[in-house]
């Protein structure tokens, strides 16, 4: 059985709640949850499979606990690891910055040698700009959750994405 490290930062609890839903759906796997506010770079070393959750705050900024860890994050060796990302944002309130932080986190993981799975179609979302898009603009670089505008879609999105990453993680 593979052990998955699930790292998240959350200012008001939404990302933490989604992290718990993901953990609960990954029954049959061992999932260890880590609040990014309480980790070091060594915390990542023991996992071949990672799930990283980040909300965007303050017009395209990374969430504050991720922000405090950001410099150290740039020294984490993600090579040989499969990484799935999920991001929370508000597509109407911050339409020009939707999920930007997930895009910035994706860039760091790629720069540090990680392989990313769990890309997610943009269909069903309305926004102007996002730094969390793939090059062709057809997908987000991870699961997109909007608890502000589309909370009724969260459960079905999380369920579909967890099934997808279970497949893509290829345990
Ligand atoms: C002051 C403020 C700024 C925000 N800025 C953005 C933003 O730039 N882009 C975005 O997609 N969402 C933005 N959001 C929405 C949050 O990402 C969203 O509410 C998220 O669910 C919060 O997650 P958390 O409770 O885990 O911190 C903002 C929310 C607030 C209150």
TrEMBL record:
<keyword id="KW-0813">Transport</keyword>
<feature type="domain" description="Flavodoxin-like">
    <location>
        <begin position="4"/>
        <end position="166"/>
    </location>
</feature>
<comment type="similarity">
    <text>Belongs to the flavodoxin family.</text>
</comment>
<dbReference type="Pfam" id="PF00258">
    <property type="entry name" value="Flavodoxin_1"/>
</dbReference>
<comment type="function">
    <text>Low-potential electron donor to a number of redox enzymes.</text>
</comment>
<dbReference type="InterPro" id="IPR010086">
    <property type="entry name" value="Flavodoxin_lc"/>
</dbReference>
<dbReference type="InterPro" id="IPR029039">
    <property type="entry name" value="Flavoprotein-like_sf"/>
</dbReference>
<keyword id="KW-0285">Flavoprotein</keyword>
<keyword id="KW-0249">Electron transport</keyword>
<protein>
    <recommendedName>
        <fullName>Flavodoxin</fullName>
    </recommendedName>
</protein>
<dbReference type="GO" id="GO:0009055">
    <property type="term" value="F:electron transfer activity"/>
</dbReference>
<dbReference type="GO" id="GO:0010181">
    <property type="term" value="F:FMN binding"/>
</dbReference>
<dbReference type="InterPro" id="IPR001226">
    <property type="entry name" value="Flavodoxin_CS"/>
</dbReference>
<dbReference type="InterPro" id="IPR008254">
    <property type="entry name" value="Flavodoxin/NO_synth"/>
</dbReference>
<keyword id="KW-0288">FMN</keyword>
<dbReference type="InterPro" id="IPR050619">
    <property type="entry name" value="Flavodoxin"/>
</dbReference>
């Amino acid at each position: 059985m593979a052990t998955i490290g699930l790292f998240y930062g959350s200012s008001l609890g939404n990302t933490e709640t989604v992290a718990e839903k993901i953990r609960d759906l990954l029954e049959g796997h061992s999932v260890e949850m880590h609040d990014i506010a309480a980790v070091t770079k060594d915390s990542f070393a023991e996992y071949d499979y990672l799930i990283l959750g980040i909300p965007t705050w303050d017009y395209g900024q990374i969430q504050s606990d991720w922000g405090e860890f950001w410099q150290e994050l740039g020294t984490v060796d993600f090579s040989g690891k499969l990484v799935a990302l999920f991001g929370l944002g508000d597509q109407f309130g911050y339409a020009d910055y939707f999920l930007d932080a997930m895009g910035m986190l994706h860039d760091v993981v790629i720069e540090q040698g990680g392989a990313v799975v769990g890309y997610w179609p943009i269909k069903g979302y309305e926004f102007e700009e996002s730094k969390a898009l793939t090059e062709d603009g057809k997908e987000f670089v991870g699961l997109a959750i909007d608890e502000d505008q589309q909370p009724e879609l969260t459960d079905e999105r999380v369920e579909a994405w967890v099934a997808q990453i279970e497949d893509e993680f290829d345990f």
